[in-house]
Design a protein that fits this description.
Blueprint: H1 3-15, E1 20-24, E2 28-32, E3 39-45, E4 48-54, H2 58-64, E5 74-77, H3 80-96, H4 100-114, H5 124-145, E6 161-165, H6 175-178, E7 184-188, H7 189-196, E8 200-202, E9 208-210, H8 216-222, H9 238-250
Helix pairs in contact: 1-3, 3-5, 4-5
């Protein structure tokens, strides 16, 4: 591997979620990150950037296959831009998929609680700190999982996107449920409000379901159309979504 290609690979990694070099040989470069446990070993083979993911969980590989064809944890990228896009999406999923968001939450909340008096332990103040940090962690994870765009409309304006829960924060039994990116969707503010009140939901195919209580004129004002659907729907969403649908149907 020549020096120019090595430099381009290191820069792509640094810019898109693999910020340091774990190891290198004459023919390969292995990149890693302090934010997740994945390593990416990159070789030049027949003009391709052949990238192999190390420590990749099956769920992450399944999600990557929405956008890339992964064969045996490997992907052949024709250009450095394709490699950069692959590394960026891989890092985003590594940050957001269970249980990385939960680990990030524990680190963040632990760091913040250390700055407060020990007397707050078990009090309402601690609960509010954990909730605020948790909701911020969940939102960041959802933005990464959905590539910064609404799960339905593909609108990419962060200021109007909300990290919606299918099972509400207060009703989740564990922090793992609260922070699970499959427990909800990244939605524009109007869709989030409707989803939160169970006035819309999604069927097993991801197609929108709209409450009969919303008139046709209001549907038009809200931009609700019968062909609206989730950009994708993972099997892991269903355990949460079926509970949300039940409340929608019970209204």
């Amino acid at each position: 591997m020549d020096a120019l290609k090595r430099t381009l690979i290191e820069k792509a990694g640094h810019d898109f979620g693999f910020e340091y070099t774990v190891s290198e040989t004459a023919t390969s470069l292995t990149l890693g990150s302090a934010r997740h446990s994945l390593h990416a070993e990159i070789k030049i083979s027949d003009g391709f950037f052949l990238t192999e993911l190390i420590n990749a969980k099956p769920l992450l590989l399944e999600e990557l296959n929405r956008d890339f064809h992964i064969a045996k944890q490997q992907l052949a990228c024709e250009t450095i831009n394709q490699l950069a896009a692959f590394l960026k999406r891989t890092a985003a999923l590594a940050h957001s998929l269970p249980n990385q968001a939960e680990q990030n939450f524990e680190l963040s909340v632990g760091s913040e609680l250390k700055t407060l008096p020990t007397s707050i332990k078990g009090t309402e103040i601690e609960r509010l700190v954990r909730q605020r940090v948790g909701q911020d962690t969940y939102r960041k994870a959802m933005l990464e999982y959905w590539n910064g765009s609404c799960a339905v409309t593909n609108v990419a304006i962060p200021e109007i996107l909300r990290a919606s829960h299918a099972i509400p924060w207060s009703e989740c039994k564990t922090d793992a449920e609260r922070l699970d990116v499959f427990n909800g969707f990244l939605l524009t503010a109007n869709l989030d409000a409707l989803f939160d009140k169970h006035l819309i939901s999604f069927d097993r195919s991801g197609i929108i379901m709209v409450s009969d209580t919303i008139s046709q004129s209001n549907r038009e004002y809200l931009g609700l159309t019968p062909n609206m659907k989730l950009r994708w729907l993972a099997p892991e969403h269903e355990q949460y979504l079926k509970k949300h649908r039940k409340r929608f149907l019970d209204l």
